[in-house]
Amino acid sequence: MHDLLPDSELLWLRSVLAGVTPPWLGALVRRAASPATCPAGEPGDAWEAFCLLTELNTPAHGLPPALAFIELVAAKCARTLGDELREWNTRQARRVQGEARLQELRVEREPGGGGLRLHLVIMVEVDGIDPERHVVSHWRQEDPQEWPPTRGGMTTIRGEELEHHVDRLIVDAERAWSEYREEVALEFVLPRALVNLPVHRWCKEHETGDPRPLFLDYPIVIRSLERMFSRQWHRAWRIRWEAMLDNPTAERVYYCRPQDSAERHRLDAILSDRRWLVMVLAGPPPARPRPGEDELATGLRTGIPVLLWHPDASPEVLREVVAWLLDGGGLGDLPARTQDSRRAAFREATLPVDFRVARDLVILWDDPSRLIFLDDGPYLPDVTREDSDERGKAS
Question: H-helix or E-strand containing 253?
């Protein structure tokens, strides 16, 4: 880069970037370097980060990582400085014939373009020794276009402390995200034994004395820990997820019936039809699977990416509510529409369905492109408890 850019241009850039430390500087460096490995060292400011990135080769698309970094920094600056950096970057990209990629990057970074969200993923497991205790890990995005984030830590707590611990994780995340404008989504990765935890009823900011329900601020979904770690299920899962993105219609929802469990593997045969992308369970799943006739296990194994259930609503009422939520092609927006319905349940409004039911609607919404990782690699199901403890200590 120092050979490609005139000294006068670099002097101007240094005068602008020296001492500037935009939020999440490390995340911006990783984003600019992708898919290359980030250079060693932690930059002290934006100019030092730019210099580190000049050590990387220019990718095939023609835009050097250092110039991609300038574009990301410009988005974090005040408007006047941001415009100056973008104007400077346009000239440099033209000089190195990377204009096409620069334009693509600008489209990707447009505010509101693509509906980008920041995710806070919280995984809860039952402790292997004391079933009254739970192991909680979390992953917090620093950049809505960067995945996977680094694991934030692992804590063992008692069951009655779960909600307050999650509260602290969310408040810490909001403080870290104070400079961002993106929407936020909460995801709870739960094992079979905990899928009926009422996370959708939990609150945050208990320390204020006036805790606020989470669903007022975030769409809330759960994810399957067993499927996350069972790689033999991932091919079918990815196929159906892609099919749902291509054709998110209400006609692809299967509503389970009591007779589906009357014969072993009958439901497996029904769901082998690839047209089914969403499944509404006849009731909440039990803590232990029922071999050959279990709705949740069958849905996970066959790759159904979205599963819904309710703790006590009748199948008829639940079908009415789900159909209303999905009316007009709402499958792709189901978590957000459910959040809206939970809010609406507090307002006096004339609605065609009883939205009080939606307060306890459980949405298992599994995106196979966003797997979670430990700091040193994928968190795989064949890792023993002893191995995972040692890896947690090492990280």
Answer: strand 253-255
Q: Going by DSSP bridges, is the β-strand pair 133-140/117-126 parallel, antiparallel, or unpaired?
A: antiparallel
Cβ atoms of 89 and 64 within 8 Å: the answer is no
The answer to whether the beta carbons of residues 223 and 213 sit under 8 Å apart is: no
Q: How far apart are CA 361 and CA 311, in angstroms?
A: 8
Structure tokens at 65: 């990582």
Joined tokens for residue 165 = 């611990």
Query: DSSP secondary structure string, 103-135?
Result: HHHHHHTSTTTT--EEEEEEEEEE-SS-TTEEE
Q: Rounded to an integer, what distance in angstroms lies between the CA atom of residue 8 and that of residue 91?
A: 13
Q: At what angle do helices 7-17 and 79-95 cross, to 10 degrees?
A: 150
Per the document, the length of the chain is 395
329 phi-psi bin (left φ>0, alpha ψ -120 to 50, beta other): left
Mean pLDDT by 10 residues, the chain (395 residues): 77 93 81 69 87 86 89 86 92 90 77 67 95 95 81 92 97 89 92 96 96 95 95 96 90 92 89 95 91 90 97 91 81 89 74 76 95 59 38 36
Identify which of 139, 117, 123 has the alpha carbon closest to the alpha carbon of residue 184. 117
